[in-house]
User: Which sequence fits this backbone?
């Protein structure tokens, strides 16, 4: 084997080594993104697992859908405080989904139905507050999130316990 052949082989091996490093780096980045998404979903669950959320949810969920703002406000400060607490949680979640920190699919599976349900009960009150304060940005990300979740759920109303009844752990 002469020096030129060795030089060509070294170039080929060098190219293969660089290509392998690029592929390995890509796999590592994808794995890190997946881990980040999993951690964000875990933190999302934690943020919704507290007595304040449960109490607020129980109050707001007891209301009829599309309750007029004046009827809602007549329920008192306990309901208004609950509405703010829940709305701020979903506002933050909407921003995190939009920025790609939490995948929308994870939010849909974890709290999608809850977000849609609460939006249907609180939207008249929120729209009233926007109009009253001439501020369209009030809880804008909560609305954005609820609308995205509602779009995703169109036609797929089968609950998980039925849809995935034949699921087997891998």
Assistant:
């Amino acid at each position: 084997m002469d020096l030129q052949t060795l030089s060509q082989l070294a170039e080929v091996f060098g190219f293969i080594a660089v290509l392998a490093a690029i592929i390995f780096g890509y796999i590592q980045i994808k794995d890190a993104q997946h881990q980040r998404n999993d951690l964000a979903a875990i933190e999302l669950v934690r943020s919704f697992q507290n007595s304040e959320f449960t109490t607020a949810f129980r109050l707001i969920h007891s209301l009829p859908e599309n309750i007029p703002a004046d009827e809602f406000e007549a329920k008192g400060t306990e309901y208004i405080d609950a509405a703010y607490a829940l709305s701020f949680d979903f506002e933050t979640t909407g921003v995190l989904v939009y920025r790609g920190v939490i995948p929308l699919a994870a939010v849909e599976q974890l709290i999608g139905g809850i977000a849609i349900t609460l939006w249907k009960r609180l939207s008249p009150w929120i729209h009233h507050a926007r109009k009253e304060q001439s501020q369209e940005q009030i809880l804008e990300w909560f609305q954005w999130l609820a609308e995205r979740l509602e779009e995703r759920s169109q036609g797929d109303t089968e609950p998980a316990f039925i849809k995935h009844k034949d699921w087997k752990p891998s």
